[in-house]
Design goal:
- By secondary structure, the protein is α/β, with parallel strands linked by helices.
- The chain has a single domain (1-364), classed as Rossmann fold, CATH 3.40.50.
- It contains 14 helices and seven strands.
- The radius of gyration is 20 Å and the shape is globular.
- The protein starts with 36 loop residues before the first helix and ends with a strand.
Length: 364
């Protein structure tokens, strides 16, 4: 199902909004038809991802002649990237993370591929659903509220490592899989490259957020073992929670239809989420179809639900780091995610697999 209606601007973002975090070029100093070093570097990042995407496409049994079409995808997308190296203005350029993602998705869809990661998403969702009770029980056993919230935030980072848009992680996942509980223990030590977690936790007990909008990221451990236990804690805190998920499939990101199904499977016989009432938990179609997001184009549904929110959370490297890290909102905001590209780590001055927790409080 595709989002119906015209896309609109997200109502809580300030007017000087720019989606991409990394400056790919300077209009004042860079030559228009010559690629910058940053552009070339990111073209290579996307080129490195082609083999893993081709492999997933080859295995898509919903598409006839998938191996041949997968090869066409690899060749066609490689040709586009080569064109951009020669002339950054080609293919709607100059290129940035949003355009490079969009071109990749366009090629896949033109060749008939709608959701090449569906099998791995379904498998990971099933495994994560089985672990959900254990994860929330561990959290609920922590009596100190500040320590419980910190544990939940660390769970978001542990879940967020399941990202098949990263060539390195895709290769690691295909070999060994990923363990959520092991990932919780292996998060890089603090201080993180951006680390406002203590400030956020100190505000938790004093804030009464009425409505939080969370832009969610990946399927599997990310949404089920990371975001949903945190969202459940917000519900206990008295906050209405809107989970904004993609309209269409992209990489292993969860879609809003998949998220509705996941939550139905997690509810107990009373319709609760591990004992917590879900009447204040809403699922919204963000209108987005990429692993990154430009908040100048969201669904009218999400715009309406977000209009009076007082907390916005951008989760994941694509939505909260590569785009929107420096976005300013009219309300409190959190950008949270793990750094899974060396180019992002270098830009931020951090480490690969470093963590970002950026909290901005808007004073009334």
């Amino acid at each position: 199902m595709e989002s119906s209606g015209e896309l609109v601007g997200f109502p809580l973002v300030l007017s000087d909004y720019r989606a991409c975090t990394i400056p790919y070029r300077s209009p004042e100093s860079d030559i228009p038809n010559k690629p910058t070093q940053t552009e070339l570097s990111w073209i290579q990042v996307f080129s490195n991802s082609i083999p893993s995407f081709r492999k997933r496409a080859e295995e898509d049994d919903s598409v006839s002649d998938a191996p041949s079409r997968a090869e066409k995808f690899a060749q066609r997308y490689s040709d586009i990237l080569e064109d951009l190296k020669k002339d950054p203005e080609s293919h709607g350029g100059p290129p940035d993370g949003i355009l490079l993602c969009r071109l990749r998705e366009q090629v896949l869809r033109e060749l008939g591929f709608r959701d090449i990661f569906k099998k791995v998403k379904d498998n990971e969702n099933t495994k994560a659903i089985s672990l959900f009770p254990e994860v929330v029980n561990i959290s609920d056993a922590i009596e100190d509220e500040a320590k419980r919230v910190e544990n939940l935030i660390r769970g978001i980072f542990a879940g967020n490592i399941f990202d098949l848009g990263s060539a390195q992680l895709a290769e690691l996942f295909s070999k060994d899989g990923m363990s959520f509980l092991a990932s919780c223990q292996n998060i890089v030590p603090r201080p993180w490259v951006i680390d406002d977690m203590d400030l956020f936790i100190s505000k938790w007990g004093r804030k009464s957020w009425k409505r939080a909008v969370i832009f969610v990221d990946n399927s599997g451990a990310d949404i089920i073992l990371g975001i949903l236990p945190f969202a459940r804690e917000l519900l206990r805190h008295g906050t209405q929670v809107v989970l904004a998920a993609n309209d269409l499939p992209s990489i292993n990101d969860v879609t809003y239809l998949e998220l509705i199904d996941i939550i139905e499977k997690l509810k107990d016989a009373d319709g609760k989420l591990a004992g917590v009432e879900t009447t204040n938990l809403l699922i919204a179609n963000s209108g987005n179809d990429l692993p990154v997001i430009d908040l100048s184009s969201v669904s009218q549904e999400l715009s309406y639900l977000a209009s009076d929110a007082d907390l916005v959370i951008m989760e994941g490297m694509g939505r909260g780091i590569e785009t929107n890290l420096y976005a300013q909102f009219k309300c409190d905001s959190v950008k949270i995610g793990m750094v899974k590209h060396q180019e992002v780590a270098d830009f931020l001055g951090g480490r690969l697999y470093d963590c970002v927790f950026k909290y901005n409080e808007v004073l009334a």
